[in-house]
Fold this sequence. Notes:
It contains four helices and two strands. By secondary structure, the protein is mainly alpha-helical. It has one domain: Rossmann fold (3-Layer(aba) Sandwich).
Amino acid sequence: MIGGPITHGPGKIVSQSMKQMIRSHLDIQKEKENTQHLKGAIRYYQSLADRAQMKGIVMDVFVADVDQVGILEMKPCLEQTGGFYVMTDSFANPVFKESFKKFFEVDETSGELKMGFISKIACTCSKEIKVQGAIG
C-alpha cells in the first residue's frame, strides 16, 4: 500500500526536501535534473522484480494518492510478477474498498482464499513404500 512517493532508500523517486519537484512525463522525456533518481530506482525495482519472480512472489500495488507515486519505476515489479495495480484518491474511496475486498475474497465452500499460491509437495518415504500420487 502506497500513500505517496518513495523518498528513502534505493527505490526513492524524489528527495524528501520540498524544494525538489517530483518528475513529470515531460521531465522524463527531456531528462531534466529532477529525474536524478529515475535510473537508480528503475534498476532497483528491476532487481526486486527479478528476485520476486524467481521465488514465485506476486507484487500488487494499492495506491491512495492524487499525485505520482513512482509506478513508472515500479512497473517491472507488476509486469514480471503478474501483479495488479489499483489507484484511488484515498483509502476510503468505495472503488478502493471494493477492489481490496475482492482481492481477499474467500471461497464459501472451502473457506480458502480464491487466489492461488505456488506450492511444492514433497513426500519422503522409506524404500518399502511406493508413492502412487499426491493431491494438494
